[in-house]
Specification:
The chain has two helices and 19 strands. The chain is globular and about 45 Å long. It folds into two domains: 47 residues; 216 residues, Sandwich (Jelly Rolls). The strands form three sheets. Strands 1, 3, 4, 6, 11, 14, 15, 16, 17 and 19 form a ten-stranded mixed beta sheet that branches. The chain has a seven-stranded antiparallel beta sheet with strand order 2-5-18-7-8-9-10, with no helix packed on it.
């Protein structure tokens, strides 16, 4: 009887080990398949982005050569003591006016620098290489990086750490009349999406950082280093833009330097 019991338990134990090995193999296979699927999805997603800067020249872009060049494989905007600006100037992409899109890039800016990436923007009459429109703000002192600022129009639409809804000005009121303290009066805070200082601490001063702009319909999201910094729901049908020029900025101010590389666009 004792030998039969031992034999019985040995068989059960062997079965259990075998079952565990089968389950382990199945889980391993499923994990490998999921990993392969995830990698394939990531590869397909990245493949849908197109480089719009060749890393060597400014082909496909237009701007004032006094301020724009390519250095160390990056678009470089620079102000020197001899070339101080009287108006903000842009390097403008010439191969389309994106509507719904995603843009990814790396940026680095000096401490005194003030820049940004404009999109769905219009050309400014009588001012060479000037744009007005939405901007993913970037500055060296890290006060504004990640916010949504509309150049030459409605000013601040969302500060860093905010999700906002934008509404129109009353009939008969001009655009600039509805701006107060450099912000649009129709800025309605919907939600705090993060602490402004904590989000700012994620940005590396004087080093390369990533920026990701997602514009879909009237929803505009700015990410820096993978973190959502601001989100705008633009319900201002009088003033919002559905498509327009794309460009990078050098802002009026002291000598500065800003660089952009790995500029990728998906439409």
């Amino acid at each position: 009887m004792k030998n039969q019991v031992i034999s019985k338990w040995l068989k059960i134990g062997a079965f259990s080990v075998g079952a565990m090995m089968v389950i382990g193999l199945v889980n391993s296979q499923q994990s490998a398949e999921k990993s392969s699927t995830d990698i394939q999805a990531m590869t397909e997603t990245e493949a849908s982005f197109k480089s719009i800067f060749d890393g060597k020249t400014l082909a496909g872009w237009e701007g004032d050569p006094v301020y724009w060049s390519v250095k160390d494989g990056a678009i470089t905007g620079e102000i020197t003591p001899e070339t101080l600006l009287k108006a903000n100037t842009f390097l403008i992409w010439q191969d389309g006016q994106p509507g719904d899109f995603e843009l990814k890039a790396e940026f680095k800016i000096s401490e005194s620098g003030n820049s940004g990436i404009n999109y769905r923007s219009e050309m400014v009459e009588d001012v060479p290489f000037a744009l007005k429109g939405y901007q993913a703000d970037i500055d060296g002192k890290n006060n504004y990086t990640g916010q949504n600022y509309e150049e030459r129009k409605r000013a601040t639409l969302a500060y860093r750490g905010q999700k906002t809804k934008i509404t129109s000005q009353p009939d008969g009121v001009g655009v600039r009349e509805f701006v107060e303290k450099n912000a649009w009066k129709g800025l309605n805070l919907e939600k705090e999406i993060g602490d402004r200082a904590e989000l700012g601490a994620l940005i590396k001063a004087g080093e390369w950082n990533s920026i990701h702009i997602v514009a879909k319909g009237n929803v505009l999201k700015h990410y820096v280093n993978g973190k959502l910094m601001s989100e705008v729901h633009d319900e201002d049908s009088k003033n919002r833009m559905e498509s327009g020029y794309l460009g990078v900025q050098v802002h009026v101010g002291p000598p500065m330097k800003v660089q952009y590389k790995d500029v990728m666009l998906k439409q």
